[in-house]
Each structure stands twice: as structure tokens, then as C-alpha cells.
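dumping this here so i dont lose it
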């Protein structure tokens, strides 16, 4: 089946077969939304730190005052023998202690309240930022490497996608169309195993074990490497498969089927390759939803470190190289253009003007202008 082809304006094939202009517009939209949100989160954190410092200072001052009062009264009554005077001193100290404790409790309560409100506000902002980044990060970061995993927990298959490029890593929680899947849902498959057979004399014979009804308990897939585990409903049989471009390993329990010359010769390799192909495709065709759970830059959470904009700068660096090539291979000054060739030979052009790009980024503020510089868009 023919697919859409993307080229530069001079008909040279585009390095990434995607609608770059649409991705660039999506990048703009994401930047316009998340940068102000991160700005708000930073402001809330700073206000909370300042408020916390004030309240903590008040508490320290109360402690210091109480110590001074106690010390002064102890010194004042150091040589006093009068029970009346000493009783008055003790009552003053009790009153001071009660008043100090009350005021400290008030300030601690206010501190906890303000911290709780700030934490909730920041959490809401960060959740919103992740929800905005989520659809764009799925395919808008060119050249990223992806690792996928899925495992059954509580009779439900859940998964994770971990993607990375340069110093950025981003992780998705995955949900699937089905709670549980069987091997046969992907492809029918049998494996040879040794069994004892015979009425009078027991001897080892090869038996075909149909694993099509086994549940898939886990899958891990990265690059060309795949590993998976199947189990029957009783947990009596457990199959482990590991495979890459160069080799494969099949275990029945702890016994290596693929290492047994006679058993290996009986493996249906066509069915094996088809099953492993379907397992790799599983993360493309069976994922019902993806939810971005966190973004790391240089191993640290961008939300905690206030570095969401820095992650956008990294993406801008990738896009900036393509913008430069679009301009170099384009025919119209001030335009970023690509050609789109649809099945059937229909050709169209799509562009975004540099002036619109710069205008929208300028409206964001200094952060937007910094992104414009990385993209290679400056005033002409």
C-alpha cells in the first residue's frame, strides 16, 4: 500500500517522513501553552518558599523570646527564697510557655496550610503541562529511541514506554484494548517438548505442546530485542522467549528447547517468526491510551527542576536543523516549505512563514525568543 511521501521544495526526500509543518505548528502551540504554565509553577514555588521562610522566622523568634524570658526570670530569682515570688515566677513561665506554644501552633498550622495549597496548585499545573506535552511527545520528537514493556498485574496487562534522545527521557503509562491476551490472539503456536510415553517401557518422546491458549504474562521490546513469557492457566507450563536479529532462546520452564538439537529441529520457525513479529507490533496496534507520566532531563525530573522549557529547547535544536535545510532548499524567502505527495501522484505544498513563527514565539516572551534563536528564526 502506497503512503504519503514528504520532500523538500526541491523534491529531495525529507529526512523524516512526517508533516513537518504540522509538527512545527504543534510545537508552537505546545510552547505557547506550557511556558506560561511553567512560569506560574515557578512563581508559586518561589512565593511558597518566601512564605515558608517568613513563618519559620516567626517560629524561631518565638523560641528565642521564650528562652530569653526564661533565662531572665531564672537570673532575677536566682537568690530569691520567697515562695510567693518563686510561685509568681513559675506562673509567669507557665503563661509564657502556653502563649508561645499557642502562637507556634498557629504559625505551624498556617505553614502547613500554605504548603498544602501551593503543593496542590503546583501539582495541578504539572498535570496540565504533562497532558499538553503528551500527544506532541508521542511522535513529535524525531530520532528518539523507544523501549516498551508490559506485564500482568492483578489479572490486567499494563505497560510502559520509555523513550530517549540525547539528554532527554520521557515515559508513558500504557493501557491496552484487552485486559489479558493469549498467544493465539496474535498467532497460533506450538512447541516441541520431551514427555515420558509407553505402557510397559517409559521412554522419552517429542510431543507438540500447543501454547496458543497460554496467557502472555510479560513482553519487553527495544530495538530488535524481544523477550516474553507465556503461562498456562494453572501455571504448570511456563515458556520464556528471547530473540534478536542474530539469535533466539526458547525455554520450557528451565529447559532450553532451542539448545536441544532434536527439539530445535522440530520448532515451527515460520510460526515463531510470525509470532515474534506480532509481539513487536503489539505496542503499535493494541495500545488503547498513552499517558505521559514524567520527563527527565539529564536524569532529573523537569518539573522538579523547572526545566520544561529546556526540554523544548532540545526539541527546537532538532527542528532548527530541518528549518535551515527547508530554507536552503526552498524557493521563497521567508517561508519554511515542504512538498506532500499523496498516493496517486497528487502533489501539494505546505508552508509556514518565518514571520508568523517569530511573531508567535515573541508573544511568549524572552523564553519564546530564545526558542526562536535556536530554531534559527530571526528578524530580517
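and the seq i came up w/
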Amino acid at each position: 500500500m502506497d503512503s504519503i511521501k514528504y520532500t523538500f521544495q526541491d523534491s529531495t526526500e525529507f529526512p523524516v517522513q512526517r508533516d513537518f509543518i504540522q509538527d512545527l505548528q504543534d510545537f508552537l502551540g505546545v510552547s505557547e501553552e506550557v511556558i506560561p504554565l511553567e512560569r506560574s509553577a515557578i512563581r508559586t514555588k518561589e512565593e511558597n518558599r518566601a512564605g515558608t521562610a517568613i513563618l519559620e522566622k516567626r517560629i524561631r523568634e518565638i523560641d528565642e523570646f521564650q528562652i530569653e524570658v526564661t533565662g531572665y526570670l531564672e537570673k532575677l530569682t536566682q537568690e530569691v527564697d520567697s515562695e510567693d515570688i518563686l510561685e509568681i515566677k513559675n506562673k509567669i513561665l507557665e503563661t509564657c510557655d502556653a502563649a508561645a506554644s499557642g502562637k507556634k501552633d498557629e504559625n505551624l498550622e498556617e505553614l502547613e496550610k500554605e504548603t498544602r495549597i501551593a503543593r496542590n496548585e503546583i501539582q495541578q499545573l504539572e498535570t496540565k503541562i504533562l497532558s499538553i506535552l503528551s500527544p506532541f511527545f508521542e511522535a513529535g520528537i524525531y530520532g528518539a529511541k523507544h523501549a516498551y514493556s508490559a506485564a500482568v498485574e492483578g489479572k490486567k496487562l499494563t505497560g510502559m514506554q520509555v523513550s530517549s534522545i540525547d539528554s532527554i527521557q520521557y515515559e508513558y503509562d500504557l493501557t491496552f484494548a484487552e485486559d489479558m491476551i493469549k498467544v493465539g490472539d496474535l498467532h497460533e503456536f506450538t512447541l516441541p517438548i520431551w514427555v515420558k510415553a509407553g505402557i510397559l517401557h517409559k521412554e522419552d518422546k517429542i510431543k507438540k505442546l500447543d501454547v496458543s491458549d497460554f496467557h502472555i504474562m510479560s513482553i519487553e521490546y527495544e530495538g530488535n530485542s524481544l523477550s516474553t513469557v507465556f503461562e498456562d492457566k494453572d501455571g504448570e507450563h511456563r515458556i520464556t522467549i528471547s530473540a534478536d536479529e542474530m539469535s533466539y532462546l526458547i525455554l520450557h520452564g528451565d529447559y532450553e528447547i532451542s539448545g536441544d538439537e532434536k527439539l530445535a529441529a522440530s520448532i515451527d520457525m515460520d510460526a515463531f517468526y510470525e509470532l515474534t513479529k506480532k509481539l513487536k507490533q503489539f505496542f503499535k496496534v493494541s495500545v488503547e491510551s498513552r499517558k505521559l507520566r514524567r520527563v527527565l532531563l539529564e536524569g532529573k525530573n523537569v518539573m522538579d527542576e523547572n526545566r520544561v522549557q529546556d526540554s523544548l529547547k532540545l526539541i527546537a535544536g532538532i527542528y532548527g536543523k530541518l528549518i535551515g535545510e527547508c530554507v536552503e532548499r526552498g524557493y521563497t524567502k521567508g517561508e519554511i516549505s515542504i512538498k506532500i505527495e499523496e498516493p496517486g501522484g497528487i502533489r501539494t505544498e505546505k508552508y509556514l512563514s518565518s514571520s508568523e513563527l517569530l511573531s508567535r514565539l515573541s508573544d511568549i516572551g524572552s523564553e519564546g525568543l530564545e526558542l526562536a534563536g535556536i530554531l534559527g528564526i530571526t528578524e530580517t
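The mean pLDDT is 92.
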